[in-house]
Design a protein that fits this description.
The chain is an alpha/beta fold. Helices cover 33% and strands 17% of the residues. It has one domain (26-33, 44-230): 3-Layer(aba) Sandwich (Rossmann fold), CATH 3.40.50.150. It has helices at residues 29-38, 47-59, 75-83, 96-103, 122-131, 163-169, 180-192, 212-219; strands spanning 64-69, 87-93, 115-119, 138-142, 172-177, 197-201, 225-230. A seven-stranded mixed beta sheet has the order 3-2-1-4-5-7-6, with helices on both faces. Helix 3 (75-83) links the parallel strand 1 (64-69) and strand 2. The longest helix has 13 residues, at 47-59. The radius of gyration is 17 Å and the shape is globular. Bound molecules: S-adenosylmethionine.
């Protein structure tokens, strides 16, 4: 997945709704998802992602694990750590700049914290965790880059070669987005493997935002959406 967010998402202070040439679920969704699920993804895993993964795993001090995947500046990781005191939250983002911004505001000497932030590419991090048979209590993917153009389908997480690893990690998965098509597609991809998901408008009130992107989109009066599914329940 490429790093640059699409131009319609790139202004952090003010945000416009997602502009897309795709009004509904992508016609090739089933084909792409099925092909990825049937094909082994062989791209080598980068050493820096292995290092970040091993560091994160070494920090776990709780019986349950939660991923905050694509955590941005990591604010949501802190909010989740407060909400789930019996779980260890791993905030993962490939952008060091974003994570560092938050790290500067939080004491690194705090030794009882139930979270950590790591810089890593999720494409590798998820594969490492799935290979180790890590099972999540919750998996949050909050405001993933929408990649809204039709030809972007394979950059969306459900169209990516690591959708199978997301499934393998299990747990209660929650995605939030300002583009409902993304979530409807994710739900369709889940349905292909017999998981039931709900997609509904997110009820959020200022200032109780889980993340900065949520704050930005809500302040710009955009409708926000959430997807929920329990990947531990096989709907077969
Ligand atoms: C739109 S931002 C949302 C950030 C945060 N979740 C929030 O709600 O404020 C999407 C984030 O996903 C991260 N991201 C995108 N692709 C990624 C990848 N392959 N590995 C790790 N992080 C990724 C980006 O760096 C960015 O911080």
């Amino acid at each position: 997945m490429k790093s640059e967010p699409p131009s319609s998402q790139s202004n952090l202070s003010k945000s416009r709704s997602v502009v897309s040439n795709q009004a509904a679920e992508h016609d090739n969704l089933s084909e792409v998802v099925t092909k990825h699920l049937e094909t082994e993804f062989k791209r080598p895993i980068a050493q820096h992602n292995i290092d970040a993964y091993q560091y994160a795993i070494s920090q776990i001090n709780k019986p349950q694990i939660i991923f905050d995947s694509g955590c941005g500046n990591g604010k949501s990781t802190l909010n989740l750590a407060k909400k789930y005191p019996n779980a260890f939250i791993i905030g993962i983002d490939k952008s060091l700049h974003r994570i560092n911004k938050l790290a500067a505001e939080n004491s690194p000497t705090e030794n009882k914290k139930n979270y950590c932030h790591v810089r890593a590419d999720l494409i590798d991090f998820w594969r490492l965790a799935a290979n180790d048979n890590i099972k999540l209590q919750h998996h949050f993917i909050l405001y993933p880059n929408p990649w809204p153009k039709k030809h972007h389908l394979k950059r969306r997480w459900h169209g990516s070669p690591v959708f199978g690893q997301i499934l393998a990690l299990g747990g209660e998965i929650e995605l939030r987005s300002n583009w409902p098509v993304y979530l409807e597609e994710f739900a369709m991809a889940l349905a292909l493997v017999k998981h039931t998901a709900t997609v509904q408008p997110l009820k959020v009130t200022a200032p109780d935002y889980i993340s900065d992107f949520e704050a930005k989109y809500h302040s710009s009066e955009q409708t926000l959406w959430q997807l929920n599914a329990n990947l531990d329940i096989d709907s077969n």
